Fold:
Amino acid sequence: MGTRREPTARQLRLAKELRRLRDAAGLTAREAAKLLGVSNVQISQIEAGLSGVSEQRLRRLASHYACTDEVFIDALVAMATDRTRGWWEEYRELLPTSFLDLAELDHHSRFQRHVAITYVPGLLQTQGYARAVFSDRIPELAEDELELRVRHRMARRVIIEGPAPIPLQAVIHEAALRIRVGDRALSRVQLDRILELSHADHISVRVIPFDLDGFSQAGSAMTYVGGSVPKLDTVVRDAPHGTVFIDSEAQLNAFRARFHKLEAVSLDAERSRDFINRLAKEL
Structure:
């Protein structure tokens, strides 16, 4: 297999999981290379995501690492042998790599959980809302790149609007519903869109109102993406320097607990719809 110049987030995740298995087995890269009958360079490239790995070699490595989780190994094999070239490829070299990585993560996700504090989750955004969000960038985006980002965000909605929609749970703070990234009309359309989506069987929208006592998790915004197995879940968070993908087991457990805690204190689905409907009528 040839050497990759710029591995995707999914390829890097596979590489990281193989490195974690080796570390757990207490083997060095040199020892792993000897067991597999390859050079140290090949192991280093595989574990850096710069080179792919065949199903045969991956299963041999898992065996040498004494990994007995067959479901997990099968999931890694699926990642290693996947040749999907999705709709997001048309944006390669046109948008930052993180946009493509996020769309690929969407494509392979089994479910998503969102916590939104200041912005409506991207998958629930209208075209006008998304344009207003991207228009606020400093320095301003050129018009053609702005339109590319909006079109990409709208295309991502296929995972909840397409022929095989995934379950989506969203916990949205009242602040995100009230902040006007555009004008009144745009905000009303956005609220109506959330209401429409909340009636779908596979979508749950719950609201955290301002008057909730003891709310101290204003920094809890996240997108929790379910992988083919729990070990391959991912948390996506926005940071000043760009999009961050989080996948360590300890952090995943913490974010799972955080989501369930926020969901527990939010309004139930019916009361949330009433709440959003009332806000829309106020505009």
